[in-house]
């Protein structure tokens, strides 16, 4: 099942709305889930509902993780993020390796990759 995990994105509702139009479930997480593995977040977190409170911690990095999302849907969602100038620091795709990582570890590795790109 296609899902996206969203952490600390200020205007996440646009991404969630577009994803819902493609029948992609969204999971919006807060700091309490950062020590959970990606696999556990997918298994035990509830999908976002429109009446849910949107957590946003503006000092932390933001990330959207695409889990089992088709290439076509991934392209459309990335287009929405880019064209709406949504501030998302990192975008990642779930892999066999990183699904066993904590979300903190994923954020750490994304930061390392970004620093290496600057060199």
Describe the structure.
39% of the residues lie in helices and 16% in strands. By secondary structure, it is of the alpha/beta class. A 4-stranded mixed beta sheet has the order 2-1-3-4, with helices on both faces. Strand 1, helix 1 and strand 2 form a beta-alpha-beta unit. The mean pLDDT is 89.
Q: What characteristics describe this protein?
A:
single chain; alpha/beta; four-stranded mixed beta sheet; 4 helices
What Rg do the Cα atoms give? 13 Å
Secondary-structure element order, N to C: EHEHEHEH
Q: Averaging pLDDT over every residue, what do you get? A: 89
% residues in beta strands:
15-25%
CA distance, first residue to last residue: 37 Å
Total DSSP helices: 4
Q: Which class of secondary structure composition applies to the elements?
A: alpha/beta
What share of the residues lie within helices?
25-40%
Shape: globular
Largest sheet: 4 strands, mixed
- Biggest sheet, strands in spatial order? 2-1-3-4
Low-confidence stretches: none
Number of strands: 4
Task: Characterize this entry briefly.
By secondary structure, the chain is of the alpha/beta class.
